[in-house]
UniProtKB/TrEMBL annotation:
Belongs to the UPF0014 family. It comes from Bacillus norwichensis. InterPro entries: UPF0014_fam. It is found in: Membrane. The keyword Transmembrane applies. It is a multi-pass membrane protein. Keywords: Membrane, Transmembrane, Transmembrane helix. The keyword Kinase does not apply. This is Iron export ABC transporter permease subunit FetB. It holds the Pfam family UPF0014.
Length: 247
Protein backbone atom coordinates (compact mmCIF):
# COMPACT_ATOMS: atom_id res chain seq x y z
CA UNK A 1 0.00 0.00 0.00
CA UNK A 2 1.35 3.43 -0.96
CA UNK A 3 1.34 6.46 1.35
CA UNK A 4 -1.21 8.10 -0.97
CA UNK A 5 -3.56 5.15 -0.64
CA UNK A 6 -3.06 5.16 3.11
CA UNK A 7 -3.93 8.87 3.25
CA UNK A 8 -7.10 8.23 1.25
CA UNK A 9 -8.24 5.75 3.88
CA UNK A 10 -8.82 8.73 6.18
CA UNK A 11 -12.14 9.05 4.37
CA UNK A 12 -13.29 6.19 6.59
CA UNK A 13 -12.56 8.44 9.56
CA UNK A 14 -14.36 11.46 8.14
CA UNK A 15 -17.63 9.54 7.76
CA UNK A 16 -18.18 8.78 11.49
CA UNK A 17 -17.02 12.30 12.39
CA UNK A 18 -19.57 13.75 9.93
CA UNK A 19 -22.35 11.54 11.33
CA UNK A 20 -21.41 12.42 14.91
CA UNK A 21 -21.48 16.12 14.06
CA UNK A 22 -24.77 15.88 12.19
CA UNK A 23 -26.55 13.85 14.86
CA UNK A 24 -24.88 15.79 17.70
CA UNK A 25 -23.44 12.65 19.25
CA UNK A 26 -20.46 14.64 20.57
CA UNK A 27 -18.05 11.85 19.65
CA UNK A 28 -15.86 13.87 17.29
CA UNK A 29 -13.11 14.51 19.85
CA UNK A 30 -13.03 10.89 21.03
CA UNK A 31 -12.92 9.68 17.44
CA UNK A 32 -9.99 11.93 16.55
CA UNK A 33 -8.11 10.95 19.72
CA UNK A 34 -8.72 7.26 18.98
CA UNK A 35 -7.43 7.64 15.41
CA UNK A 36 -4.29 9.56 16.42
CA UNK A 37 -3.53 7.13 19.25
CA UNK A 38 -4.01 4.10 17.03
CA UNK A 39 -1.67 5.50 14.36
CA UNK A 40 1.07 6.33 16.86
CA UNK A 41 0.71 3.06 18.76
CA UNK A 42 0.72 0.92 15.61
CA UNK A 43 3.80 2.67 14.23
CA UNK A 44 5.66 2.19 17.51
CA UNK A 45 4.59 -1.44 17.77
CA UNK A 46 5.58 -2.04 14.16
CA UNK A 47 9.18 -0.99 14.83
CA UNK A 48 9.25 -2.91 18.12
CA UNK A 49 7.99 -6.09 16.44
CA UNK A 50 10.58 -5.79 13.68
CA UNK A 51 13.31 -5.57 16.31
CA UNK A 52 11.90 -8.49 18.34
CA UNK A 53 11.42 -10.70 15.27
CA UNK A 54 14.94 -9.97 14.04
CA UNK A 55 16.49 -10.56 17.49
CA UNK A 56 14.50 -13.74 18.17
CA UNK A 57 15.48 -13.66 21.86
CA UNK A 58 13.24 -15.14 24.61
CA UNK A 59 13.70 -12.10 26.86
CA UNK A 60 12.36 -9.72 24.21
CA UNK A 61 9.42 -12.03 23.50
CA UNK A 62 8.58 -12.18 27.21
CA UNK A 63 8.83 -8.40 27.57
CA UNK A 64 6.49 -7.91 24.61
CA UNK A 65 3.94 -10.28 26.10
CA UNK A 66 4.18 -8.58 29.51
CA UNK A 67 3.63 -5.21 27.82
CA UNK A 68 0.44 -6.51 26.18
CA UNK A 69 -0.78 -8.04 29.43
CA UNK A 70 -0.07 -4.84 31.36
CA UNK A 71 -2.00 -2.70 28.87
CA UNK A 72 -4.92 -5.14 28.90
CA UNK A 73 -5.07 -5.28 32.70
CA UNK A 74 -5.04 -1.50 32.98
CA UNK A 75 -7.90 -1.21 30.48
CA UNK A 76 -10.05 -3.83 32.24
CA UNK A 77 -9.27 -2.54 35.74
CA UNK A 78 -11.10 0.72 35.07
CA UNK A 79 -14.34 -1.20 34.51
CA UNK A 80 -14.21 -3.09 37.80
CA UNK A 81 -13.13 -0.57 40.40
CA UNK A 82 -16.07 -1.64 42.58
CA UNK A 83 -14.38 -5.03 43.06
CA UNK A 84 -11.61 -5.14 45.66
CA UNK A 85 -8.33 -6.42 44.24
CA UNK A 86 -9.61 -6.26 40.66
CA UNK A 87 -6.12 -5.54 39.30
CA UNK A 88 -4.50 -8.77 40.44
CA UNK A 89 -7.64 -10.77 39.61
CA UNK A 90 -7.65 -9.57 36.02
CA UNK A 91 -3.88 -10.06 35.77
CA UNK A 92 -4.14 -13.61 37.14
CA UNK A 93 -6.91 -14.41 34.67
CA UNK A 94 -5.09 -13.13 31.60
CA UNK A 95 -1.73 -14.64 32.61
CA UNK A 96 -3.38 -18.01 33.22
CA UNK A 97 -5.04 -17.93 29.79
CA UNK A 98 -1.76 -16.97 28.11
CA UNK A 99 0.18 -19.74 29.86
CA UNK A 100 -2.57 -22.28 29.14
CA UNK A 101 -2.87 -21.52 25.43
CA UNK A 102 0.84 -21.16 24.73
CA UNK A 103 1.56 -24.25 26.83
CA UNK A 104 -0.77 -26.31 24.65
CA UNK A 105 0.46 -24.79 21.37
CA UNK A 106 4.16 -25.14 22.10
CA UNK A 107 3.96 -28.23 24.32
CA UNK A 108 2.10 -30.22 21.65
CA UNK A 109 4.24 -28.78 18.82
CA UNK A 110 1.21 -27.21 17.17
CA UNK A 111 3.12 -24.00 16.49
CA UNK A 112 6.88 -23.28 16.60
CA UNK A 113 8.31 -21.50 19.65
CA UNK A 114 9.32 -18.44 17.62
CA UNK A 115 8.46 -14.77 17.98
CA UNK A 116 6.61 -14.77 14.64
CA UNK A 117 4.06 -17.19 16.09
CA UNK A 118 4.10 -16.51 19.82
CA UNK A 119 3.57 -12.74 19.73
CA UNK A 120 0.73 -12.47 17.16
CA UNK A 121 -1.18 -15.37 18.73
CA UNK A 122 -0.61 -13.97 22.22
CA UNK A 123 -1.91 -10.62 21.02
CA UNK A 124 -5.14 -12.20 19.80
CA UNK A 125 -5.59 -14.24 22.97
CA UNK A 126 -4.81 -11.37 25.36
CA UNK A 127 -6.91 -8.90 23.37
CA UNK A 128 -9.87 -11.24 23.31
CA UNK A 129 -9.54 -11.94 27.03
CA UNK A 130 -9.48 -8.18 27.67
CA UNK A 131 -12.67 -7.55 25.68
CA UNK A 132 -14.49 -10.48 27.29
CA UNK A 133 -13.44 -9.37 30.77
CA UNK A 134 -14.85 -5.91 30.09
CA UNK A 135 -18.09 -7.41 28.78
CA UNK A 136 -18.35 -9.58 31.88
CA UNK A 137 -17.71 -6.73 34.33
CA UNK A 138 -20.19 -4.43 32.59
CA UNK A 139 -22.91 -7.08 32.66
CA UNK A 140 -22.04 -8.19 36.21
CA UNK A 141 -22.36 -4.62 37.47
CA UNK A 142 -25.75 -4.23 35.81
CA UNK A 143 -26.98 -7.59 37.12
CA UNK A 144 -25.96 -6.80 40.71
CA UNK A 145 -27.64 -3.39 40.64
CA UNK A 146 -30.82 -4.82 39.13
CA UNK A 147 -31.10 -7.75 41.57
CA UNK A 148 -29.63 -6.33 44.76
CA UNK A 149 -32.86 -6.87 46.72
CA UNK A 150 -33.01 -10.50 45.61
CA UNK A 151 -29.44 -11.14 46.77
CA UNK A 152 -30.09 -9.51 50.14
CA UNK A 153 -33.25 -11.58 50.58
CA UNK A 154 -31.34 -14.82 50.01
CA UNK A 155 -28.68 -13.73 52.51
CA UNK A 156 -31.32 -12.81 55.10
CA UNK A 157 -32.82 -16.29 54.79
CA UNK A 158 -29.47 -17.91 55.57
CA UNK A 159 -28.13 -18.31 52.07
CA UNK A 160 -24.41 -18.16 51.32
CA UNK A 161 -22.81 -15.38 49.25
CA UNK A 162 -22.38 -17.84 46.38
CA UNK A 163 -26.08 -18.69 46.46
CA UNK A 164 -27.05 -15.03 46.68
CA UNK A 165 -25.03 -14.02 43.64
CA UNK A 166 -25.20 -17.26 41.63
CA UNK A 167 -27.92 -16.20 39.18
CA UNK A 168 -26.28 -12.87 38.40
CA UNK A 169 -22.86 -14.51 38.06
CA UNK A 170 -24.00 -17.22 35.65
CA UNK A 171 -26.04 -14.73 33.63
CA UNK A 172 -23.01 -12.42 33.28
CA UNK A 173 -20.68 -15.26 32.28
CA UNK A 174 -23.16 -16.46 29.68
CA UNK A 175 -23.73 -12.95 28.28
CA UNK A 176 -20.00 -12.32 27.88
CA UNK A 177 -19.48 -15.62 26.04
CA UNK A 178 -22.40 -15.30 23.61
CA UNK A 179 -20.75 -12.81 21.18
CA UNK A 180 -17.79 -15.15 20.61
CA UNK A 181 -19.99 -18.20 20.13
CA UNK A 182 -22.41 -16.41 17.81
CA UNK A 183 -19.62 -14.92 15.67
CA UNK A 184 -18.09 -18.37 15.22
CA UNK A 185 -21.40 -19.78 13.99
CA UNK A 186 -21.16 -17.60 10.87
CA UNK A 187 -17.38 -17.71 10.47
CA UNK A 188 -16.57 -18.01 6.76
CA UNK A 189 -20.16 -17.29 5.71
CA UNK A 190 -20.80 -13.77 6.98
CA UNK A 191 -17.29 -12.77 7.99
CA UNK A 192 -13.86 -13.70 6.63
CA UNK A 193 -11.41 -13.46 9.55
CA UNK A 194 -8.53 -11.01 9.27
CA UNK A 195 -5.77 -13.55 9.87
CA UNK A 196 -6.99 -15.87 7.11
CA UNK A 197 -7.66 -13.02 4.67
CA UNK A 198 -4.24 -11.49 5.38
CA UNK A 199 -2.44 -14.76 4.67
CA UNK A 200 -4.37 -15.26 1.42
CA UNK A 201 -3.61 -11.68 0.29
CA UNK A 202 0.06 -12.33 1.10
CA UNK A 203 -0.01 -15.33 -1.26
CA UNK A 204 -0.33 -18.20 1.21
CA UNK A 205 -2.12 -21.39 0.29
CA UNK A 206 -5.85 -20.89 1.13
CA UNK A 207 -6.08 -24.30 2.84
CA UNK A 208 -3.11 -23.49 5.07
CA UNK A 209 -4.65 -20.10 5.86
CA UNK A 210 -7.93 -21.79 6.79
CA UNK A 211 -6.12 -24.27 9.04
CA UNK A 212 -4.40 -21.47 10.96
CA UNK A 213 -7.70 -19.62 11.26
CA UNK A 214 -9.38 -22.73 12.68
CA UNK A 215 -6.61 -22.81 15.28
CA UNK A 216 -7.41 -19.20 16.26
CA UNK A 217 -11.15 -19.93 16.36
CA UNK A 218 -10.57 -22.77 18.85
CA UNK A 219 -8.20 -20.60 20.89
CA UNK A 220 -10.71 -17.77 21.17
CA UNK A 221 -13.43 -20.19 22.24
CA UNK A 222 -11.25 -21.36 25.13
CA UNK A 223 -10.32 -17.77 25.93
CA UNK A 224 -13.96 -16.69 26.13
CA UNK A 225 -14.88 -19.52 28.49
CA UNK A 226 -11.87 -19.39 30.79
CA UNK A 227 -11.65 -15.58 31.10
CA UNK A 228 -15.32 -15.13 31.98
CA UNK A 229 -15.52 -18.05 34.41
CA UNK A 230 -12.19 -17.42 36.15
CA UNK A 231 -12.69 -13.67 36.54
CA UNK A 232 -16.25 -14.22 37.72
CA UNK A 233 -15.36 -16.68 40.46
CA UNK A 234 -12.37 -14.61 41.55
CA UNK A 235 -14.49 -11.46 41.75
CA UNK A 236 -17.76 -12.32 43.45
CA UNK A 237 -16.36 -12.99 47.00
CA UNK A 238 -15.13 -9.37 47.10
CA UNK A 239 -18.72 -8.14 46.97
CA UNK A 240 -19.39 -9.35 50.52
CA UNK A 241 -17.96 -8.34 53.90
CA UNK A 242 -16.81 -10.58 56.75
CA UNK A 243 -20.41 -10.99 58.00
CA UNK A 244 -21.52 -12.21 54.55
CA UNK A 245 -23.38 -8.98 53.81
CA UNK A 246 -23.53 -7.49 50.34
CA UNK A 247 -21.39 -4.37 50.26
Amino acid sequence: MSYTALALTLSFVLIPIFLSKTLKLQLEKDTIIAVVRSIIQLLIVGYILKFVFDAEHPVYILLMILLMIGAAVENVRKKGLFIKGITWKVAATIIFIEVLTQGILIGLNITPATAQYIIPISGMVIGNAMVLSILFLNRFTAEIEAHEDQAELILSLGGTPKQAIHTQLISSIKASMIPTIESQKTMGLVQLPGMMSGQIIAGADPIQAVMFQILIVFLLLTTSAVSSVMLGYLSYPSLFNERMQLK
